[in-house]
Fold this protein.
Amino acid sequence: MGRRQSRESAMQVLYQVDVGKMAVDEALRNIQENFVLAESDFEFASQLVYGTLEKMEELDKTIAGYSREWQLERMAAVDRNILRLAMYEMLYVDDIPHGVSINEAVELAKRFGGKDSGKFINGILGAFARRVGETRA
């Protein structure tokens, strides 16, 4: 399935932890049981989940800085978790170009978010990428 499925699974785990207050290990186990990810895909999903959770406070502050009209807690939970995941990739996963992280986040938003989620997420992540300087094509 690849990294797209890993990102989708990671976003679903983050959503379950955020909204459902599920323990992260239990949420990861549920995802693996339901989607049967390849070992490498599950490892990447786990890396994204644990990394995002570890850096959550920093990620939320960064997102809040780019989302002046929408406070983080008022955002749709799906949008909030897609932003956290993509922001983690952009800041901490060096082998992924920012453009790829943004495109994948927008695709997740189109699939799982509301009517305007893709535009909202693209705007925030695009502004962040421009500000930090796109050094990874």
